[in-house]
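User: Hello, beginner here. Can you help me understand these amino acid letters and fold codes? It all follows right here:
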Amino acid sequence: MDDYGVVPETGTVRFERVLPGPIERVWAYLTESEKRGTWLASGPMDLRVGGRVDLRFRHADLPSPAEPTPERSQNDEGEDRVSGRITRCDPPHLLSYTWREEAGDESEVTFELTPHGEEVRLVLTHRRLGDRAAMVSVAGGWHTHLGLLADRLNGLAPRPFWATHAHVEAQYDKRLPADRHD
């Protein structure tokens, strides 16, 4: 399976991964703040339709090899926050929530989990992305974070976040068609 996400329609990027199960374990890494913080972002998540999601990205705290944060990703707080509301929730199979609700450029991310023998098939779809630049950035970010999730679930040493992100973002810049958004 090609690890790179695909663009099934304008403004949407989709990823598929097969991860070690059971499904409840993968669900916990999507929904429990402490576990989610080891691969994506910590923060509270009210697991019900309409419930609040507050993600706190602290890339410097991810358990990956130490490396400098690129200048374009630095901020005074050392933290990026993403807030939204849960739009669908069917534990442990489906979780969907709005993304960057507070910024006014709201998109939506959906995680679908399906048992696949002793493994779990994860499909992540991020919809309503505004332009090609957002698509490239989001695709690079999700690709990198999903790699950290796979590392975590497989008991592997986590890959370096920023070096991986720079590489895959450059690949998405080449792969994503300009005419789909610009």
The first strand starts at residue 13 and ends at 20.
